[in-house]
Amino acid sequence: MTIDPTAFKVYALCAVILFLKMFAVGIVQGLTRHRHKAFTVPEDAHMIVNAEAVSADHPDVMRANNAYRNDLENIPIFLILALIYQLLQCWPTGAPVYFGLFTLGRVSHTFFYLKALQPWRSVAYFLGLLVNFALCGHIVYKVLIG
User: What is the largest CA-CA distance in the chain?
Assistant: First the structure.
């Protein structure tokens, strides 16, 4: 099995973009906690701002946490499906389109989640979901029909 080099480069670039996006969400969480001096873990509160721990995260921290958790539910399966898609040599021309659309959907989803923008957050979510279903369709077709 060989992987189309162009498709793999797009895959690699999208994986890096998705990692950096998730890393940025962690930075948003930390900066928000620091700005509001609101840490739920006592040793963090004491070490970072010499304050008492709070019982609940700031709403903006919770929003970022929810966006991050949603990424953990969607990005790993995309990376696995996209790799299988390439290993099976499905439609190479579609790979950059699918991978780019998924990445655009996830970056947009996070932006819209952090800014509390509906229905755009749902639209971005469904874009990524549709890409995963398209990858599944190609994979099943390739496995069963060839």
Answer: 63
